[in-house]
């Protein structure tokens, strides 16, 4: 079973993140907040594709569902 910490580690191995927080307690369903400079100038769909790319085949095998909120560092710093 996959832990939230393992999922965070998988993402940060392939995507530079200024902030990341993954929650999930059943091993297959997760929620994530991810802040990365790599998201700058990209649409939300493109941002999510970067995260999926960082996870690779794990999205097909280990992770059943991943709900995520993605932000550029500027968006994160201006978030109320």
Q: Could you characterize what this model shows?
A:
- It contains four helices and three strands.
- Helices cover 41% and strands 24% of the residues.
- Strands 1-2-3 form a three-stranded mixed beta sheet.
- A hairpin with a 5-residue loop joins strand 1 and strand 2 (29-35).
- Helix 1 crosses helix 2 (44-55).
- It has 80 residues and is α+β, with helices and mostly antiparallel strands.
- The protein has a single domain (4-73), classed as GMP Synthetase, Chain A, domain 3 (2-Layer Sandwich), CATH 3.30.300.
Mean of residue pLDDT values: 93
> Nearest-angstrom radius of gyration?
12 Å
Spatial ordering of strands, largest sheet: 1-2-3
Write out the CATH superfamily name.
BolA-like
CATH class label: Alpha Beta
The secondary-structure element order is: HEEHHEH
Query: Could you give the distance between the termini?
Result: 35 Å
Q: Number of helical runs?
A: 4
Compute the number of strand runs: 3
Instruction: Summarize the biggest pleated sheet.
Output: 3 strands, mixed
Our count of domains comes out at 1
Q: What is the name of the CATH architecture?
A: 2-Layer Sandwich
The proportion of strand residues reads 15-25%
Helix/sheet category: alpha+beta
Shape: globular
Kindly report the CATH topology. GMP Synthetase, Chain A, domain 3
Helical proportion, percent range: 40-55%
Poorly predicted ranges (pLDDT <50, ≥5 residues)?
none
